[in-house]
Design the sequence.
């Protein structure tokens, strides 16, 4: 299976790897997947409380190359956009951008889930009503 | 693909052909292109002679009579012929077969088919080293048992079963003993007669011969074993396997067997040193590296390691431009299941997902191993820097206590 240049670049030079202090009120943490399934993704966002925009995003992922590239790409997209725009990120956009093969679509689903879960955590902490989003099971 | 040198450490999946093997085969594509079953012209005679010679070379390697070698298209076909062929032939005696959970799919799926045909199959567990429990084997034998099928060495872990002891148990109970010896023939000495093995499957492309040719050894004396043909046609191979013989393939297989008889001891000695060097260096360089399967009863050229908190497929992507090897099993890495062989050893799914199989071969060099040690260490460190569960582990978080979201 040949991977796209973009995917390989995100895999070899992942952007925004790291850990934020999850006890901070303006940090939202999403932890999805399970070690038994071969994939665990942790994605964190830091929200600027004045503008409501995402100031920074960080991730760490245990998983295949596609999962790592998907989460790396997701953190790039998240920086500087509003929480609502972040909620609208669709896994198929990741699939397109990285040219993921069909067997790797679930890795992008995981990234979408991680974004949604990080936002939900942020909203819960700040007493914002969590929007119902359709759960993309996989 | 990069222009850098490619290192091949996936010899359990398939070996390259030895150039001496290819040289031997070439005339049988051109001037010696006859059909070994053509009885009335020299083309046929030459082909038949070549096949007979190869049969001798192969029989010599495993110390059997050349009449006991049935050529097939490979080990998969030989496994199927042995299992289904014995089941059909001995159905009146009984319908029960005993095998292991860690067998190759060629054996397991043939057994599933036999169950559909009215057979009963017991799939024995292995212990944490990958070894059979001899007491459990003996306890599983009933008066309906016709066959015990145990692979000589496992393709994923290289673990070698106590074949002679299994042979004794089969002998004691009057049960046939068959073995998938694909991973051992041509690598270490294999003597089915001295081991009590009555049927044995193996293949050319795991011993520096060509793909698409294999053999089933079927014992002809004490006891005289018969199998029902699974392929109907011209009655080749004593009626046990019809189909025009793959003459160039068989010639190459024979040459590979001859080379192995002479060189396998030195190959094994050299490769076990390189394997140990690789294993020891990786274990010394990093924490939480585990050897999967028995260290003591293991093929000299195989190492199956788990790198905790790193996912194997992702890890492979760090070096697969330069080093070819397998994560889990080559046959199943298209699906996302962890290796069933490692799970049968009692590894958690997470450790099974973290495994790599290194299988060295005749053409592996010390430089290959030195490069691999560096590349794997870098790759594991890269992946661990990225791994949230490695971070949790380092912080002392009990990973099992976390409620993971199922999916
Ligand atoms: C243990 C074992 N049995 C059977 C096979 C299948 O052999 P072949 O490719 O010759 O059908 C393999 C190789 O994949 C193997 O490792
Ligand atoms: S995370 Fe499971 S295959 Fe990509």
Sequence:
């Amino acid at each position: 299976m040949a991977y796209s240049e973009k995917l390989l670049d995100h895999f070899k030079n992942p952007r925004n790897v790291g850990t934020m202090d999850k006890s901070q009120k303006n940090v939202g943490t999403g932890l999805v997947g399970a070690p038994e399934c071969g994939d665990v993704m942790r994605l964190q966002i830091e929200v600027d409380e004045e503008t409501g925009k995402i100031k920074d995003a960080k991730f760490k992922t245990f998983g295949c190359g596609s999962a790592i590239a998907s989460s790396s790409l997701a953190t790039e997209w998240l920086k500087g956009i509003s929480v609502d725009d972040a909620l609208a990120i669709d896994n198929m956009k990741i699939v397109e951008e990285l040219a993921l093969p069909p067997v790797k679509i679930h890795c992008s689903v995981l990234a979408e889930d991680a974004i949604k879960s990080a936002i939900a955590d942020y909203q819960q902490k700040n007493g914002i009503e969590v929007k119902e989003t359709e759960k993309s099971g996989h | 693909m990069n222009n850098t040198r490619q290192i091949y450490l996936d010899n359990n999946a398939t070996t390259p052909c030895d150039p001496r093997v290819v040289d031997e085969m070439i005339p049988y594509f051109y001037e010696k292109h006859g059909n070994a079953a053509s009885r009335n012209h020299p083309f046929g005679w030459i082909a038949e002679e070549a096949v007979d010679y190869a049969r001798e070379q192969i029989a010599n390697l495993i110390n059997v009579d050349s009449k006991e070698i049935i050529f097939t298209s490979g080990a998969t076909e030989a496994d199927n012929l042995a299992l289904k062929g014995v089941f059909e032939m001995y159905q009146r005696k009984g319908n029960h077969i005993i095998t292991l959970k860690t067998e190759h799919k060629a054996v397991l799926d043939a057994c599933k088919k036999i169950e559909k045909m009215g057979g009963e199959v017991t799939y024995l567990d292995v212990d944490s080293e990958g070894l059979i429990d001899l007491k459990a084997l003996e306890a599983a034998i009933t008066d309906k048992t016709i066959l015990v099928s145990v692979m000589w060495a496992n393709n994923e872990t290289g673990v070698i079963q106590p074949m002679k002891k299994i042979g004794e148990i089969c002998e004691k109970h009057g049960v046939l003993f068959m073995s998938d010896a694909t991973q051992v023939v041509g690598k270490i000495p294999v003597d089915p007669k001295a081991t009590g093995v009555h049927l044995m499957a193996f293949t050319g492309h795991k011993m520096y011969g060509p793909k698409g040719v294999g053999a089933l050894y079927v014992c002809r004396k004490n006891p005289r074993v018969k199998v029902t043909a699974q392929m109907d046609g011209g009655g080749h191979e004593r009626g046990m396997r019809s189909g025009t013989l793959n003459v160039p393939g068989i010639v190459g297989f024979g040459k590979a067997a001859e080379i192995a008889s002479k060189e396998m001891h030195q190959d094994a000695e050299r490769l076990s040193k390189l394997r140990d060097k690789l294993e020891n260096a990786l274990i010394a360089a990093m924490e939480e590296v585990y050897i999967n399967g028995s260290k003591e009863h293991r093929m000299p050229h195989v190492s199956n390691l788990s790198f905790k908190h790193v996912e194997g497929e992702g890890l492979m992507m760090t070096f697969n431009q330069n080093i070819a090897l397998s994560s889990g099993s080559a046959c199943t890495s298209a699906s996302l299941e962890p290796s069933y062989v490692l799970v049968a050893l009692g590894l958690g799914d997470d450790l099974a997902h973290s495994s790599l199989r290194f299988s060295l071969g005749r053409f592996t060099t010390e430089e290959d191993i030195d490069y691999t040690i560096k590349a794997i260490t870098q790759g594991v460190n890269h992946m661990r820097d990225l791994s949230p569960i490695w971070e949790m582990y380092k912080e002392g978080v009990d990973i099992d206590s976390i409620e993971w979201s199922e999916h």
